[in-house]
Amino acid sequence: MRHTILLSLLLGSACGFAASSSLAQTSAIQASPEKSAYLQDGSGPVVRSQDGLCWRSGYWDAKDAVPGCDGELAPPVMKAIAPALAAGPAIASDQPKEPDLVAQCQFTLSSDSIFSFGKATLSKSAKQEIDKKTIEKLADCSGAKVLLVTGYTDHLGTDAYNRKLSMRRAASVASYLKSKGISNRIETNGAGAAEPIVTCSNKLSIKKSIVCLAPNRRVVIKMQ
After folding, report:
1. pLDDT (tens digit, 9 = 90+) per residue, 186-205?
2. Which residues form the OmpA-like domain (predicted)?
3. Which domain holds residue 18?
């Protein structure tokens, strides 16, 4: 069957023109002779103009496009995308962290070591212990403004008695701190048997219970 071949130099879109021109001086573009809609020379490659444009036949349409001839009409080439760079290790700040004020400025005094059982009067040895465990360390808490002194008891006795005793013990410690020149504002609190540290069996004798519950009897000094 004879076909009238209309040879025309078709300029595609600007993008297609650029793509074709860039390939004009490279390797020959091949198209299938049986179904090609391009003009081909005797050896098979598509005939191109001096500008590198492919010569199309009069019955060419978009489905006849071949890579290298028709720019946008040729199948797109997927570009490899480099994987995202892994985040580098965090750089430690040279700025020193603020000290934990509560951790450095909280002191616990055992009531049994500074008070006789059921009493709230500080002995000479008790004052020496406060000097050693508390006053010498308060210099590290110079940024704090308030000194909170809280007394605690065990659960033996009534709640009213324990709260009163814990308040009296807190007041005794606060008074001694003031006498040693502590200029911070001091607040006192009596917590009674609240916030126990240990729990002992209720089957113990009174004497053994007193020994077992010793950690609960304490005075806590906290800078705020």
Report:
1. 999 999 999 999 999 999 99
2. 102-224
3. 1-75
